[in-house]
Amino acid sequence: LPSPSEDPARERPRILIVEDNSADVFLIRAAIKAASINAALDVVKDGEQAIRFFDAADYDDSVPRPTLVILDINLPRKQGDEVLQHMRRSRSCRNAIVLAVSTSGSAGDRENMMRLGANGYFQKPSEYTDFLKLGDLIKELLGAGGGTDSAD
Amino acid sequence: MDSVPGAGNANGAFREMVEALPVAIYATDAQGRLTWFNAAAATLSGRAPEIGTDQWCVAWKIFLPDGTPLPHDQCPMALALKGGRVPGGIECIAERPDGTRFWFTPYPAVLRDAEGRITGGINLLVDITDSKAAELEANERFRAVVETTPECVKIVASDGTLLQMNSVGLAMVGASSAGSVTGRSIYDLIAPEDRHSFREFNERICQGEKGSLEFDIIGLTGVRRHMETHAAPLRNSDGAIAQLAVTRDISESRRAERAALLLGAIVDSSDDAIVSKDLNGIITSWNKSAERVFGYTAAEAIGQSITLLIPPDRLAEETEILNHLRRGERVDRFETVRQRKDGALLDISLTVSPVKDAKGRVIGASKVARDITQSKQADRAALLLSAIVDSSDDAIISKDLNGIITTWNIGAQRVFGYTAAEVIGKPVTILIPSDRLDEEPEILSRLKRGERVDHFETIRKRKDGSLLDISLTISPVKDKLGNIIGVSKIARDITERKRAQAALLASEARFRQLADAMPQIVWTARADGYTDYYNERWYEFTGFARQKSGDLSWAPILHPDDIQRCRETWYGCVRSGEPYNIEYRFWDRHDRRWRWFIGRALPVRDADGTIVKWFGSCTDIDDLKRVEDDLRRANQDLEQFAFSASHDLQEPLRSVKIYSELLTVTCGERLDGDALQFLEYVRGGATRMEMLVRDLLTYTQVPKFEKPPEPTGAGEALTSVLASLAGAISEAGARVVAEPLPSVRVHAAHLQQLLQNLIGNAIKYRSPDRPPVVHVTAERQNEQWIFAVSDNGIGIPSDYKERIFGLFKRLHTSDEYSGTGIGLAICKRIVDRYQGRIWVESEPGRGSTFRFAVPV
Fold this sequence. Notes:
Radius of gyration of chain A: 14 Å
Distance between the termini of chain A: 21 Å
Number of strands of chain A: 5
Number of helices of chain B: 23
Structural class of chain A: alpha/beta
Strand content of chain B: 25-35%
Distance between the termini of chain B: 168 Å
Shape of chain B: elongated
Mean pLDDT of chain A: 84
Structural class of chain B: alpha+beta
Oligomer: heterodimer
Number of helices of chain A: 6
Shape of chain A: globular
Strand order of the largest sheet of chain A: 2-1-3-4-5
Largest sheet of chain A: 5 strands, parallel
């Protein structure tokens, strides 16, 4: 089960990172930090864990629900697109903001995720400084989503 | 017997003489009592008169000529004795007691004494029966003639009194009996306006002339009739002349005028064109059918010359016809050609009759034209038919129901060797070999039942005794009433065909032998797709019974998913005549699994190009198919692998690059020079590998587009390429010059990759001595566009011109020129995909020109 890895604070946005690669999880955290986003972060390592996270929120109102999900496309067990579809059908999490991330520059992958309801897409760059631009994108999406919790 | 009164003492000789006279004589006293009679009187009266009792006459009963009884006391003798004057020549009838009658004329004479007193009488009765009978007969005959004459016969006195009229005449005037009109003036029966002329006519006749007259009568009832009378004078015995007239009712001919109108209607309704013309050939009447047949309306035709209808080359005919008509002759069913208003020619049958006036003069012609185009065609068909019969290669013979040959065409002569003269009238059995003579009665009995014998193959005998195979088709010949009157027989010499059949059978046997020896399934089918033969391999493979062929006989072992497709394809080919070529699965009962086969069939055509047969085979391609499938799957796997590999390789490479950078940036102060240098190598290696992986990904993705390309504007592709190369171009100070470029059927992404790689290379391999200039041009050659990218760079040694298009082939170290060695391989792969080609022309040190050709 997911466990909050940061101190939960009521007003803070909650970001769920679905990413199997620890090196990338590190970089994502670095990007969020570099963008000075004060958010609660949850991390799951594969698609099934992500789905259980959403299901738990549906059955138990005390379980935290994410404001924004950073969703890697290429995941063990369940792929990112399946996770996204499941989430968009979830009672409590369907309104969360989704930012799909991937190493792939394929237009097909991008279009597929956008069609399934992703709010943004970020191709993981191979330069550190480029990677940090992810923080700006998250900030932007949180601003557009009003940064409000949509767990209803 | 008493003495003859007045005869006194007449001597015996006189007495004897009177007695013996053949004339009946009797004598009476003054009171008329019989005093004497001779033998002839007794004989004539048929009785024995009684002297002193019989009074006035010896006859038993007396009648007037009209049959009225005449009392004895009023008979001429009585009148004479009573002192009256008795006219001479009276005719009376007497009846004997036996009922017979006789005609007589009395000649009474009165005897007087010296004082003139009547003392008695003497009467002679002359028997006139014979002459009277003749007269009566003549009268009767005349009366009969008059009565039977269908016309009115009458006698009119000069003063106009109708004396006599026959019953036809009575009927004409409406009289019920002769009494109602005879003895009256005939003038009352004549129409008032004609009375005067009739009176004059009557007087003229009564003066002895003959004549005729037309007049109207009104009769007793006022019904008008138009009469025509022919009269002659009739002299009575007293010398007076009366008119004897035969009068005909010609009201009918008046009616005929009205009938003529009716006739006109009939003429109009006739299917034949009925035209009349005068002797100058000018059309005077024109019926409806004439309008239909010739296309001219009556208004258009009447008044025109008949030559209007005559084709120019037949104008002479009209003169000839007119000559006939002037002589009063009729032209009967003259077949000729006439021309319609629209110019079309018609076969017609003409009947032209002269039209004469009352005096018999020819005043014109009536012409009946029948359109016989149809029957003419039938005639031609008959001619054609007989020509066909004569030109037929088949023997065409007819015979009567006794089997006697009645006709014999040229074909029959050729086939059987007999001439027509030799066989007509002979029994058809002369053509039949002795062992087949029983066929003929059988054939005849079938024909008598009205049946037809079709393609009966048998053997017949030629004149020279040789036998031949023939095919007989025999039909009954019927008359118009449907009675069978004979037989028509078509005999085709099939000796050749039989030989050909035998040859065919032999060749078929050879074919089957060959087919059975083949390792493939071989089959044949009829033109309609019905499978009529399989070789031995089929029966081995399927285990089917030998007889099992025919439509869809192959369906039971066909994979259910293939049946529909096979059936549609096969019958589609049967309809179109295109070769059949299809892959499908058959159930292999030995291996108990489906095996892939390729079915092929080609139509076999006769000399006319008509399909007569299909020749097909089923070849087991299962092993091949499996290898092919395996290969395709292996290729797919390989491509999938290459794709995934290059894709998945990117991720760890990215981590290596980023973390070596991070290490340099964050821990730089804690590392010494060597460590930093090593880190730089790590990063460089990772970067190069990243490029390699990216290019490899591009390379594997070249065949991915499934859809045929839309025409792509090469100019637009170039624009986007120049945008993405903008950094490199400005860095190198390069100039790219492009001519207007065409549209080609290449996917846009591929065209961009081609141009990007070639232009990128042109800039990358620039000469250190001069700023790079790149020219991009395109030139049409037949169905291809040949693009050229020329540079002024370092050029390529000719040894490497081929090698540079191979994967990972590079001419330089990455220290000299960075690169993956995949770019040109990608270009080649793309061009190959479009069946195009790519090549290079180069002069080392001066520059290179890369060209690629792609379809228009």
